[in-house]
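ok so for the tutorial part 2 we go from a plain amino acid sequence to predicted structure tokens. step 1 is just haveing the sequence, like this:
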Amino acid sequence: MTDEFSEYFSSLLEAADNSNLRIGLNRAILSYRRGFNEALSRHPHTIELAKKVRKIKEESIARLDELVKQTMDSIEDSKGNVYLAENAEKAREIIGDIVGSNKLVVKSKTLTSEEIALNPYLESLGNEVVETDLGEFIVQLASSKPMHFIVPALHIPREKVAEIFRKKLGVEVGEEVGELVKTARKYLREKYFAADVGISGANVVAADTGSIFVIENEGNARFVTNAPPVHIALVGIEKIVPSLSDAMSVCEVTFRYAGFRVPTYISIIFGPSKTGDIEYEIAYGAHGPKEFHVILLDNGRSKMSKHPIFKEALYCLRCGGCLIECPVFQIVAGNFGYRYFGGIGTVWTAFTESLKTAAHPAFSCTLCGKCKAVCPMEIDVPNMILELRRKYARKKLLPPELLAAEKIILEGKSPYRRGD
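step 2 — the prediction. this is what the tokens look like for a chain of 420 residues:
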């Protein structure tokens, strides 16, 4: 474990010295702050709405088992197929059975699919998997990893994006952002209509109707959830709230704190496509997907919901504001973390991966509290990090410097004067 800590902290130092990462990060931070300040100044009621959403999330997590059952019943009523996956392996297995082999799969942004390592699994079955969110598409072409909940490629400056497109797509393209977007649009447009399966996540789910909500600006998620004949939605059970109106409140707070006044699209998806245009009789499989599958993922969430301290992590809306203001993230981006990032991601990693996997980032946090100050849900991340560190202290899962300091103290010496 000592070597693993050393390797992890060395990787942070390497990231901090990456000039491309720093350029991309600094530009993204400035852009986010402008958008966030404008969004809240134009819509100041959002601050009070966030308090309401906090209560909605508290109630939802307290009623999690009940709401999961209600959601499953509602999805089945809408002619959808619903599955409850207890862990990542089961979720992959379910999705693999639906997709099969030798298919073209298009995906919209879903951090939950990163959690279960879905892409390499589907590729191992012989499928082609294409990320369609521009940031995820860039990350995929760069063979990198997402570095933020909302802006996964914020660590890659436009100059580097142009270089990646020239090399991977074989096109001549300049470094102007609009030109880069057009290049991605042209490439991806063909993929949407050739795809066999579309996979999305969801920002929130309404238990009373079984509707899933997808917030986006690019329009790619609409193609992913509408063009292929099969739509699969992978959703963590913590995304469930009691009602449609609750879900809309969650959406509004999420996109405002993500730095947007209003998103271009909010899709509400309720079952496979259907029509009632002939004698008002409902027929399924119209112009959109003929099949709708929802995988509700537990993977440690139920356990988290029952913990008096860590259950608060389930209130997270994935707006990403905490990451932008984190002093460590501002230097190393998503290298501070595993599949989830920053302090809040460290807590998630402890439950969705393992306590050991979360040990490295747990000792990267400065406990400054900036994350809590900007969080719309006022999640007390520093308190949860401290609780994790208590667990690590009991298990001796500590950085070598702390183990050395502990040894010196137990010997009755001062850790500040090694020669004593």
